[in-house]
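Hey Z.,

So I finally got round to the fe (ii) ion thing we talked about over coffee. Here's the setup:
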Amino acid sequence: MSNFLDTKKRLPNLGIGLGLRRELASQTLESKNRIDWLELVPENYMGLGGACRERLESVREKFPLVTHGINLSIGSTDDLNDEYLRKLKELLNFIDAPWFSDHLCFTSCDGIYMHDLLPLPRCREAIDLIAEKVKRVQGVIERPFLLENISYYMNVPGSQMNDAQFLAEVIEKADCGLLLDINNVYVNSLNHSFDPYQYLDQIPLERTVQIHVAGHKQGSQYVIDTHGAAVVEPVFELLQYVLERIDANGVMLERDQNFPDFNEILDEVDRIRQISEASAKVKQAGIAPKTASALRQFERKQSTVGRKELAEVKHARVLSA
Ligand SMILES: [Fe+2]
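And the result:
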């Protein structure tokens, strides 16, 4: 029996949130009526004073907070960084975060940090290594931990399984939670030509505590997960597909660059809320997620949009070859 699934039952439902970004901080603070909670990047606040600390204190007064780290480097063969964990724990205690998260990737090698979320060889050795490290992290921090599925632009040599199988095996063996990034699933499905719905059906969605929704852009060869554009319709549809099946404890928008008028960001937060509320009604009414005919219609619509975007990717690859 999974301890984590028991833990998840006791976690609060935070509602609909936004990633805290310095550029948007003042407008975010004024929008408590439309944003329920915030996610912050712990590396921007750990052990820091001055303006960072002031910002942290003002958001802590108004919003529930969780952290989403980038430097835990859980998939690295480097050992865990005790100093990093100590500072992270201190921050998590200060904000009293109900959970915290990082990425299923590696960001360091031989103690050198590469400032990028790098994909792992999807093999048994990696699963065993990560599961053991996740258990140690949870033991030190003493709060529920989630791993996020990353966007990746290459399949690392030595892989023995697909990304969905790898993700599923890691989080089940580690007995941790899932931070499901819907945009990453969609972007990966375009870049690596798989069905995003099948991907979702292959992973233990019941472990989802938090969900990310974001935008992306068409690069010269790949679709790039930029968090710098509006969320596309197929991503909202995938979100609906997930929320009609499971209860997440928090869904949020990631917008990290190319900032539009803040009202556009708030409108996207509202859209996520509408989908979340509509999905809750479907679950409460005991309606099977999507009747067969609605699902067919939904899939047709999705595949039309998805096919168009995939065709553009392939066209761009041909031009740049
Ligand atoms: Fe994400």
